[in-house]
Amino acid sequence: MRFETTRRDGTARSGKLILERGTVETPVFMPVGTNGAIKMCTRDCVKKAGATIVLANAFHLYLKPGLEILREFGGIHDFASWDIPVLTDSGGFQIFSLSKNIKVDDDGADFKSPFDGTVHRFTPEKVVEIQETIGSDIAMVLDECLAPTDLESTKKSMKRTFKWAQRAILAHKRKDQALFGITQGGFFEETRRESTIEITSLPFDGFGIGGLSVGEDIDTTIKMLDVVLPLMPEDRPRYLMGVGDPLLMLEAVERGVDMMDCVLPTRMARHGGILTSQGRINIRAAIYEKDKGPLDPSCDCEVCRSYSRGYIHHLIKRNESTGMILATYHNIYFLTDLMKRSKAAIINKEFKEFKEEVLSKMKYQKRRVL
Prior knowledge:
Layout: E1 2-9, E2 12-19, E3 22-26, E4 28-31, H1 43-48, E5 54-57, H2 58-63, H3 67-73, H4 76-80, E6 86-89, H5 92-98, E7 103-104, E8 109-112, E9 119-122, H6 124-134, E10 138-140, H7 151-171, E11 178-183, H8 189-200, E12 206-209, H9 218-228, E13 238-240, H10 246-254, E14 259-262, H11 264-269, E15 273-274, E16 281-282, H12 302-306, H13 309-317, H14 321-347, H15 351-361
Parallel strand pairs: 4-14, 5-6, 6-10, 10-11, 11-12, 12-13, 13-14
Antiparallel strand pairs: 1-2, 2-3, 7-8, 8-9, 15-16
Helix pairs in contact: 6-7, 7-8, 8-9, 10-15, 13-14, 14-15
């Protein structure tokens, strides 16, 4: 893997992430395909919507279809016919959010499968092995994703994440797979700063910022980014995990974030939540029943060029999968295009003006998020 910063506008930056299976222009939004597929959007659909890299999840792929099947197919790219880069999350968040009766110690974590209740153990080494079997272009290390509210437990969790990161580096062998570390530290400046310094001292190919956008208010998220980002290496990609809200995406890009992902835009689309240049709308609302206009008058995606709000309202109200497909395509296009336009604004050294214009149209003055 190689990363190059090509242009800067203040702390905002554009660049290129050069991977085994392609070059990814940054800043970039990565659609989430937890099980190796983006719900309601095929591989070609995702690519046509502008995605150049997608995310899959090691926790879910380990449980279903399992490592034996993935070995048989030679990894996720041949199994799922992905011909663009794939990043796999380690599954740490899923262990702590989906599993019951979790037992965590310094060696790893025991958890029960949410599918059949079987007990499994993840260690830093096991998670590296899983992702090397999956064959993703970028693998994330195992981190502890607890949500401690007091300083002492946050410090303990942060130290465990650092030790796990050290072990992951020693276990990682694939030369064609980049390995990213993850900074943690909760919502305390002290622990955020310490975790960032510790994790970035290790020879990772890039760095994730974990434990944010998990329900806290946006000002807290931005405050933590202001602590973390100035401490991160200039020559490595910076990945803000779990963010897909346009407001927070633009705030992150302005501060030097290169990569983001989120399941919310596609999940939201399946229930009628549409991202537009005027802000989010609920296409299920009765106001759109006779609306002949496109989902977003300012969008030039295939859906907006071809279908009316009234038609997609009808499909979503009737739980037709076609409506979910169209809404999903549009939301992916909207965010990938937002990042492309952000890159162009950085190149032209007008990112701040671009951000302010976009957010003013979305009526984001009150700093709310999706």
